[in-house]
Specification:
Layout lengths: L1 H16 L21 E5 L12 E13 L4 E9 L4 E4 L6 E3 L1 E3 L4 E3 L7 E7 L2 H5 L6 E2 L2 E9 L1
Antiparallel strand pairs: 1-2, 2-8, 3-7, 3-10, 4-5, 4-9, 6-8
C-alpha cells in the first residue's frame, strides 16, 4: 500500500511539473537613437618628398574613417596650394618648379561611403625639371572639408 501511495504521489508531482506556462503580452518598447549633428573624420596624406627629376610621384590617399552624415548631405574636400602649384626654392622665391596635382578634382564623401578613396599624385614636366635651380623647393597644400547639401 505504501508503494502504491508513493507511486501515486510521484505521478501527481510529474503532472504538476508538466503544466504549461502561458505568456501574456504586457506591452512593447521602442529602441532608437538620434544625432542632430553630423560627424566625420577625413585623413589626408603626410608630408612627402618628391625625388629630383621624377616625372610623377604618389602623395598618398584622402580617405574617411567616419561618415555620420544626413542622407541629403556630403563632405566635399578641396585642396589649395600656397604657391599656386609651384615648388618654390627656399633660397630664391623667384625660382620655382611648376607641377600638377592629380586626383583632387572632385573629392566628395557621401553618407556611409567609408570605402571611398581618392589617391593623389604630383606630376612635374621635363621642361620644369630642366629649368629648376639647385636647392630645396617646397609648397604647402591645404585641405578643406565642408559639410554641404548634396
Amino acid at each position: 500500500m505504501k508503494k502504491m501511495i508513493c507511486v501515486g504521489l510521484a505521478v501527481v508531482l510529474l503532472a504538476l511539473c508538466a503544466l504549461p506556462a502561458f505568456a501574456e503580452d504586457v506591452g512593447s518598447m521602442q529602441i532608437s537613437t538620434q544625432s542632430d549633428q553630423a560627424a566625420y573624420e577625413i585623413s589626408i596624406p603626410a608630408d612627402t618628398v618628391i625625388p629630383w627629376e621624377a616625372p610623377e610621384q604618389a602623395l598618398g590617399e584622402v580617405t574617411a574613417s567616419k561618415l555620420q552624415l544626413a542622407y541629403d548631405h556630403v563632405v566635399r574636400v578641396t585642396v589649395d596650394s600656397q604657391n599656386a602649384f609651384n615648388l618654390v626654392n627656399d633660397a630664391d622665391a623667384t625660382k620655382t618648379i611648376g607641377y600638377t596635382l592629380s586626383g583632387a578634382d572632385a573629392m566628395v564623401f557621401a553618407p556611409g561611403a567609408i570605402d571611398t578613396v581618392y589617391p593623389l599624385s604630383v606630376a612635374v614636366s621635363e621642361d620644369q625639371w630642366a629649368q629648376a635651380a639647385a636647392g630645396r623647393h617646397a609648397d604647402v597644400l591645404t585641405f578643406t572639408a565642408e559639410y554641404v547639401a548634396a
